[in-house]
Each structure stands twice: as structure tokens, then as C-alpha cells.
Write a structure and sequence with these properties.
The chain is an alpha+beta fold. It is 63% helix and 10% strand.
């Protein structure tokens, strides 16, 4: 049992170690003569500058009585309509050339890094739902009485776990996506779901088999059929035991989602690469990207821990 003084001593040593690590990173930057420019990063997270709306063709500006702006092309193409703006730059009847600023939108908006973070959260959350469904289904098939179901589940698990995720993303996007006409976001979700589902299936299988066989026999002796015994007796116990490994697998899913950038999904990692090329602040960008991934995975881990404590109350 730790005493109060030993706990405070442990916290103090932890802070010292973290201070040494942070200092090491700082002095490493100084050693390579790197100049830190954190101020360059903020517009790529929250941008408060006005956004210019430019003309996409040569033509004439037309402003109707309702204040709607349009550019009538010189060569009879469809007009460019601008429905939302805050400041009008072009006037009615002005000659407009392609690339000219015709209006501006004021106020703040999310930058590329914030938008990439949202894409990462969205693709991870959707993939997590389908991965759990696939994992539970194939996990139950792994312990089913029918040999054909067990063989099918084992084939799925071994094939998916035995091939790299990057290769699976390419196969789903270029082959399956072409056959079924899937967009890149759907292909990314499908690849992540299938990959993570195989690992979830093994976790579910292990959780079910960790429950004593006497539990199933006791449930069947009370008149329950196999499905009722699994739903009301076996699975509730298995879920409690599988929460820690499931949390680790879900965290891996969020980190693995960075690989979907190879099929041009602008997630947090791809947004980071684009921002590096525009801001010339590689260390600041990648440290920020790492912290944002840590915030997302840490939040998920904390949520799983709270759920685990809630379920342990009934033990």
C-alpha cells in the first residue's frame, strides 16, 4: 500500500522525467539550428482571415436586386453564381478575368488540420461500428457448432491478419471499389472495418471461451436454448473481460486510419503533409498532429475505462 508521501514522490519524479524529455526535444532543435515558428501553424487550425472568392472564367459581373452575384462568361458557358458572401468586391457590369477576386467571406473557419481531424474522427467512428459488428459475428462463428461456419471464420481471420493493412486498402479501393463503384471514403471505411473486424473476432472468441463451460450447461438446464444462453449468460460476461483488449484494438484503429491518406482521403495525416509544404514548419506540424491523435485516442481510452468501471459494479 502506497503512502501519501511515496505517491507525491512518484509524481515529482514523473514531472522531472517529463521536463528532461521536453528539454531534450528543445535542445535537439537548437543543435540543428532549427527556428521554431508556432505562429505559422494557427491559421491552419483556426483561420480568421477573410476568404477570397475568385472568378473561374472571364466574363461580366451581374448583381441583381436581391444582392446575388453572378459572372456571365464571354463564351456562353454556365454562369458562376455566388450566393453567400460578406463583402462584394466586383460591381455590376464590371469586366471580370479568370482569377479575379469578386467577393470575400469574413469570419473564422476551420483550417486544414482541424478539417483533417474531423475526417479522422468520422472515418474511425464509422469503421469502429462496422468492425464491432463484423467482429462479433465472426467471433460467434469461431465457436459455433457447425464446422463450415468455423472454417469460414478462421479463413477470414487468418487471411486478414496475415496481410498488411496498406495492401488491403489498395485492393479494396482499386479492385472492390471499381467493381461496386465505391468512392474513396467508403473504400477506406470498408478496408479499416474488415481489417479491425478480424482482430475483434479473435478477442470476442477468446472472451467467450474464457467463460466456464458450466455457465452454458447451467443456462441450458434452466430451459434456455443456445441463443438465449449466449445472449443472457455468456456474452455479458465475455464483454466485461474483453473491454481492455478491445480498447487497445480501437486505439490501433484510430492510428491505422492514417494509412487511408494513400488513397487521397484528406485525414489528419494527409492534412499535415499538405500544411508542411505550405508552412515550412515540419516539426511544429507533426508535433501538433501527434498531440491531436493522442487527444483522440486518450479520450477513447478514458471512455472505455469509465465503461469498464460501470460494468464492474455489477460483479
Amino acid at each position: 500500500m502506497q503512502t501519501q508521501s511515496s505517491r507525491w514522490l512518484g509524481h515529482g519524479l514523473y514531472l522531472v522525467i517529463m521536463a528532461i524529455l521536453v528539454s531534450g526535444v528543445y535542445f535537439a532543435g537548437q543543435k540543428i539550428n532549427y527556428s521554431w515558428h508556432w505562429e505559422r501553424l494557427w491559421p491552419y487550425i483556426i483561420n480568421t482571415e477573410s476568404q477570397d472568392i475568385v472568378a473561374i472564367t472571364d466574363g461580366t459581373a451581374v448583381v441583381d436586386k436581391a444582392g446575388r452575384l453572378s459572372v456571365l462568361p464571354d463564351y456562353g458557358d454556365d454562369p458562376q453564381l455566388v450566393k453567400v458572401y460578406d463583402t462584394l468586391v466586383a460591381r455590376d457590369g464590371d469586366l471580370i478575368f479568370q482569377g479575379d477576386t469578386i467577393a470575400r467571406i469574413e469570419g473564422w473557419r476551420f483550417g486544414p488540420i482541424a478539417e483533417g481531424l474531423w475526417v479522422t474522427i468520422k472515418i474511425s467512428f464509422i469503421s469502429l461500428i462496422f468492425a464491432v459488428l463484423l467482429g462479433v459475428m465472426f467471433g460467434l462463428m469461431r465457436v459455433a457448432h457447425g464446422q463450415v461456419w468455423r472454417n469460414l471464420a478462421m479463413t477470414y481471420v487468418e487471411v486478414i491478419r496475415g496481410t498488411p493493412l496498406l495492401v488491403q486498402i489498395f485492393i479494396v479501393y482499386f479492385f472492390v471499389g471499381t467493381v461496386f463503384d465505391l468512392d474513396r471514403f467508403t473504400s477506406g471505411v470498408a478496408a479499416l472495418s474488415i481489417f479491425t473486424g478480424a482482430y475483434v473476432a479473435e478477442i470476442v472468441r477468446a472472451g467467450i471461451q474464457s467463460v466456464s463451460a458450466g455457465q452454458m450447461e447451467a443456462a441450458r438446464s434452466l430451459g434456455m436454448n443456445y441463443v438465449q444462453a449466449m445472449a443472457y449468460v455468456i456474452m455479458p460476461q465475455a464483454i466485461k473481460r474483453t473491454l481492455p483488449p478491445l480498447a487497445g484494438q480501437f486505439i490501433n484503429l484510430i492510428k491505422d486510419s492514417s494509412l487511408v491518406s494513400v488513397i487521397s482521403i484528406t485525414d489528419l495525416t494527409k492534412a499535415g503533409r499538405e500544411v508542411v509544404s505550405g508552412s515550412f514548419a515540419p516539426f511544429e506540424v507533426w508535433f501538433t498532429v501527434a498531440v491531436l491523435y493522442l487527444v483522440v485516442t486518450g479520450g477513447l481510452s478514458l471512455l472505455i475505462q469509465c465503461l469498464e468501471k460501470r460494468l464492474s459494479v455489477s460483479d
